[in-house]
Amino acid sequence: MSDYIDLKNFISKRKSLLIAPAGCGKTYTIAECLKYTEGVHLILTHTHAGVASLKEKIKEKGIKTNKYRVETIDSYAQKYVNAFYCRNDVPEQDSKDYFPFIIEKAFELVKIKPISDVIKLTYAGLFVDEYQDCAKNQHKFIMALSEILPTHVLGDPLQGIFSFREQKLVDFDEDLKGFEKFDLKEPWRWKNTNPELGICLMKIRKKLENKEDIDLNTFKDAIEVVHINEEDISKPHTNYNKKIWDLLNESNLLIIHPESRSINTRIKIIKNFENRIYLVEAIDDKDFYKFSKNFDKSTPDNIYKIIYDFISTKAIFKKTGIENWFNKKSLKQKKNEKDREKIEPIRKNLEKLQNKISFLLIAQTLKQIKNLPGVLCYRKELFNDLCKALEEAEYNNTSVYESMKKIKNRKRKIGRKIEGKCIGTTLLVKGLEFDTVAVLNAHKFEDPKNLYVALTRASHKLIVFTNSSILSPYSKQRNVN
Fold first, then answer.
1. Where do the coiled-coil regions begin and end (predicted)?
2. How wide is the angle at C-alpha 344 spanned by C-alphas 339 and 348, nearest 5°?
């Protein structure tokens, strides 16, 4: 479905579904469709990185911003609950129950006629991208919206990786029976950069759909395979370590690690490569809220401890860098005059804070600490958002926690562009594309969907690090059976 007639056919349906493999142009299809629509269209997706990607691709097509609104499903639902839900039983935003609650209440609210009338007057239609990641409750919410607006959903069941124990994902065959189906099959992402890679990834997709093992030797013309021992990544002069150093010369690089349960492995890699890699954070990682609440407890008596607890927390800063300047209970006494000059502004700020708490001054002090020689910050987004939350709390006379919630909600609505040299997991980078992608320890992927998402993020160069040429992403299921 790549021509004008098919696009018009797709958007002419009251309910339509577009299924397409990764790289075949789902997002660009939304942008193209907007050329042939009237009025304002609502475009929903799942992640703030996805919001930024959609906005960028729509902008590339020259579509005027008054023709569309892009935000996450959660953000859009949250807007209605914040405006119209009056009871006081809303869970805290840092609770795992918060967004399921928001989606459920939004589902109830949009069925109320005055609210549905406002939606109908505001928007001419709805697009939902990455539909395979809709949990059942989100799907129910979208179906309620589909009774109000013409609805066009786009997705790929093989990329549905947002399924967790407590939530099942939408089933395209069972849950979208009333939607007319369309498809895309041309791998456009690689057309002008690496056509052979696009062809190989389509073949790999077919193998994954058929639950077959993948022999990387058959794709070596398009995919660079590096045979490794896992532990060698941290050992200088090993092939694994040297290859990562070489890749850091790339300007647009994504490193994907199969371990998604903890950031510690990714932090260790960032440390091993001298902080030259940016950590992609989960938007609602609990640490953003935890440290915000900690700073809300600041008093003149405990402010040093609260600051020290933050800067000495494992994985935020380089430990030896912090220990060079700070003791557990006070700043270190420096003999070197240049060192004394560098630490003196921090000492003065701490003295002021021990007289009177100022969130603005705390943020300023944290930034001064970050700039000390030898101090490296591994979690830059956490640090930057916390400083912003402190500053906004001061300006708006609110708590740091409330300010952090607003920052997160803005990102959900506005989006967050991810670029440069980054490391993340499939859950954090799906829907994105980078010139060069390195998939680490590919043999550790036990789920075919996560492996497929990882392999399809590269638009030009794909490097797969593995201890075996044969990838068996179904091995876990086979062992269970």
1. none
2. 165
Pairing of strands 470-471, 214-215: antiparallel
Distance CA 56, CA 416 (A): 11
Rounded to two decimals, the pTM is: 0.92
Q: Just give the CATH number of 7-186.
A: 3.40.50.300
Residue 6 structure tokens: 């098919």
Same CATH topology for 7-186 and 195-280+418-479? yes
SS3 342: helix
C-alpha distances out from residue 350 to 9, 192, 197, 300, Å: 65, 56, 56, 9
Report the mean per-residue pLDDT for the chain.
94
For the chain, the domains span: 7-186, 195-280+418-479, 286-414
Q: How much is the average pLDDT of 157-163?
A: 88
Torsion angle of the four alpha carbons 416, 420, 421, 423, in this order, in degrees rounded to the nearest 10: 10
Percentage of the chain modeled with pLDDT above 90: 88
Statement: 195-280+418-479 belongs to CATH 3.20.20.80: no
Region 133-153 average pLDDT: 97
Distance CA 376, CA 378 (A): 6
Contact 110, 116 (CB under 8 A): yes
pLDDT category of residue 167 using cuts at 50, 70 and 90? confident
Amino acid making up residue 329: K
Distance CA 67, CA 403 (A): 31
- Beta bridge partners, 436, equal 253, 461
> Token match 């290859």: residue?
243
| Confidence label for 481 from pLDDT (cuts 50, 70 and 90) | very low
Cα–Cα–Cα angle for 22, 23, 24, rounded to 5 degrees: 95
Structure tokens given for 5: 């007639």
CA distance 298 to 292: 10
